[in-house]
Amino acid sequence: MRWARRCKDAHITENQALFGIIQGGFYEDLRKKSVEDLIELDLPGYAIGGISVGEPKEEFLKMLYYTTPMMPKEKPRYLMGVGTPDYLIEAVMSGIDMCDCVLPTRIARNGTAMTSHGKVVVRNATYERDFGPLDPECDCYTCKNYTRAYIRHLVKTNEILGDRLLSIHNLRFLTNLMERVKIEIESNNLANFREEFYRKYGYIK
């Protein structure tokens, strides 16, 4: 909180929005105290920090759904460091407005693609002669122009184009997902979509 106050005092530009970052680990009382103190500073937006750091998913969800309702509804609510499809959907369900994460490009550099039916580790030998797209349901540049076999070849030979093509795909996959989430919110069908997506992606059987 001392740092947050110093930041607000030093923040003189109108071209940037200074967000207060809610901390407190996995202690509800500390989270509540952090939210209350930050709200007093009347900042342009508020972020949740310190979760999605390797804890069990149950703990992540518990703290997410506990903290978000306490954040001002009239200001942007931001969840830091979240990039998997299930966590993004849960963030929206809880009332979060925005997220960010390096995950889509990080796993791309390891030869992994997010697809409508789950992860595809394209460096695996099973894709050596797979001449289909990463995801037949995707409209990205990579899926329209390159095969799994060719991308696997690029990855296996350490050609940076492979990382780039996988990054393009993963980023488009997530933007497609969030576009769909918007539609489901407007249709008041997000809970049903979550279950449908989880089954298709392989999160639940």
The shape is elongated
Q: Give unreliable regions as ranges.
A: none
Rounded mean pLDDT score:
95
| Tally of DSSP β-strands | 6
**Assembly context of the chains:** single chain
The largest sheet, given as strand count, sense and whether it forms a barrel, is: 4 strands, parallel
Number of helices: 9
Instruction: Give the H and E element order.
Output: HEHEHEHEHEEHHHH
Strand content: 5-15%
User: Gyration radius, to the nearest Å?
Assistant: 20 Å
Q: Which range best describes the helical content: under 10%, 10-25%, 25-40%, 40-55%, 55-70% or over 70%?
A: 40-55%
Specify the structural class: alpha/beta
Q: Kindly report the spatial arrangement of strands forming the biggest sheet.
A: 1-2-3-4
Distance between the termini: 44 Å
